[in-house]
Amino acid sequence: MSADLLPEHPDFLWRNPEPKSSYDAVIVGGGGHGLATAYFLAKNHGMTNIAVLEKGWLAGGNMARNTTIIRSNYLWDESAAIYEHALKLWEILPEELEYDFLFSQRGVMNLAHTLGDVRESMRRVGANKLNGVDAEWLDPKQVKELCPILNINDNIRYPVMGATYQPRAGIAKHDHVAWAFARKCDEMGVDIIQNCEVTGFVKDGNRVVGVKTNRGTINTEKVGLAAAGHSSVLAEMAGFRLPIQSHPLQALVSELHEPVHPTVVMSNHVHVYVSQAHKGELVMGAGVDSYNGYGQRGSFHVIEHQMAAAVELFPIFARAHVLRTWGGIVDTTLDASPIVGNTPVENMFVNCGWGTGGFKATPAAGMTFAHNIATGTPHRLNKPFALERFETGALIDEHGAAAVAH
Amino acid sequence: MLLISCPNCGSRDETEFHYGGQAHVPYPENPNELNDRQWAEFLFYRDNTKGAFAERWLHSTGCRQWFNMLRDTVTYEIQAVYPMGSPRPEAAGKVTAETGTASLAPDSTTTGTAAPSTTGTSISGTSNTPASTTAPEGATK
Known about the structure:
The complex is a heterodimer.
Chain A: E1 22-28, H1 32-45, E2 50-53, E3 69-70, H2 77-96, E4 108-112, H3 115-130, E5 136-138, H4 140-146, E6 162-166, E7 170-171, H5 174-187, E8 191-193, E9 198-204, E10 207-213, E11 216-225, H6 231-238, E12 245-256, E13 264-267, E14 272-276, E15 281-288, H7 300-313, E16 322-332, E17 339-342, E18 348-352, H8 362-375, H9 389-392
Parallel strand pairs in A: 1-2, 1-11, 2-8, 4-13, 11-18
Antiparallel strand pairs in A: 3-7, 4-6, 5-6, 9-10, 10-11, 12-15, 12-16, 13-14, 14-15, 17-18
Chain B: E1 3-6, E2 10-13, E3 18-22, H1 36-44, E4 52-58, E5 66-72, E6 78-82, H2 108-111
Antiparallel strand pairs in B: 1-2, 3-4, 4-5, 5-6
C-alpha cells in the first residue's frame, strides 16, 4: 500500500503547550485521576488557568495498565458512597465528554469458594442494597447461566459456591477514558504538559508556592498530587510522609478470541479476575507482588499462580495463550482505602492510596479532589478518606470485604 | 522471580520466602508516652523508598528464620543480606551463605573479580552498583 492511500492523521485531541511561568493550580500526574481532577476543576469550579504535569506520556502509567473493571459493590458506607458516585458518573460521562469510551455494563461477578466467602459475600450484598448499590446473590446454577464457561463442578480445589453479582458494573476502554478527559480539559484551556517531571517544590514557610520541574520552575497557588505509585516520592520532596507502600501489580492478555466471556468474573480467594475486552483478548489480573517495588514489573510466579486459578475456573482457557504481561506500580494503604484530602503542607493536596482499584474510581476521585483543591475543604464523599484517619483510628477497612483483588 | 540468598540455606526461589516489609522499625521504648501521631507513625507509616531499601524477609518454607536484606526497589537487585539485629550495611555487597553475615565485599558472583573497596561511599555510589539504580524514572522505563 502506498502512502497516499493511508488515511489522514486524525486531529490531535489536545495541544502540547510549553509550561507557563505560573498557574492557579498544578496537578502532578497526567493519568486518569489527574485528568479527571483537572476536568472537574475547570467544569465545576471555573479554574481553567491550571496545568497537569506528566513526567512521561499522558495516561501511560497505571491508566494504561489496569484491567478496566468498574464496580461499586464495596462493603462500608464510606466506600460504597464514593464508588457508587463514580459508577453514576461513568453512566453519564460518555455523553458529557462527547466520547464513547465503550463503557459496557456487562456486570461483575465476585465468586465465593468457601463457607466464609459465602457468608462475607451475602453480608456484602445486604450492605450494598442498604446503600443503594445494585447487588444480588447467585447460586452456582445461576452463576453458570450468566457465565457458561465457568466450571462449577464441586470436585475442584476451590469450587464455586455462589457469587455476588452487580449488573451495573462492567468495563470501559481505559485509554479512551483518558483521551476523553484530556480533550475536554484542553478545550476548556487546561494545559496538559507531558515529559515534565517534578523534581521538587518551592515553599514559603509551610505553604507551597511553586513546583520545580525538569522544564523549569512553575509558580502556583495550589498543588494536587495524583501520582499513584510515586506519591511517596513526591511527598518526600514536599517534606511529609504518606502511609503508602508501592507494590508491583501485574496483568496479562491472551490473543484475540471469539466472544466467550459475557461478564466480568473476579475471585478474591484464588486471586484472579477475568474479562474479555471488546476486541476479544482475555484480560486477567492478579494480586500484588509481595515486595515493595517501583520497577513496573513483578515476579513470574505470580502470573503462574493466577493462570493456574484461571484455568481451573475456566477450563477452555487451557487452549489460550499468554500474549503479553506487564506491571504497574500500585500505592497500597493498610486499610485498602484511598487517601484523598489535605496534607501537612498548606495548599498541597493529595489523592493517592487507591492501590489496586483506582481506575473504577476515576470520575469520583477527580470530582472530590477538585472540590477539595478548589475550596480547601473536602467534599462529603472524600472527607472520610483524609490522611488523619491513621491518627484517629477511623480506618475504612476494605480488606477482605472489597477484597485483595479490586 | 527473585533468587534470594538465605543466610542459613543458600540461594532459593522467592516463593520459599515471606516478605516482612521495612527493617529496623523497633517497637517504641515507652509506648505510654506516645501521642496519637507517634502511634500512627509506628503502626501505619513505613518508608516507601525508591532505591536501596532495607527490608525483612522470612524463609518460611526453609529454615523459618528472619533476616534482613538490602534491595533496590527499582532494579530489584539484591545488594546485601544480613542478620536481624545488625545495622544496615554502609555499602552494597552480598552475603556469603556460609557465614550468614553481611559482607561489604563487592558481588564476586557477578564480577568474578575483586573490586575496589567501597568503604565510606554511599550505597548508590558504589563501584559495583550502576548509578542508574537511583536515577529518575526515565532511566528505568
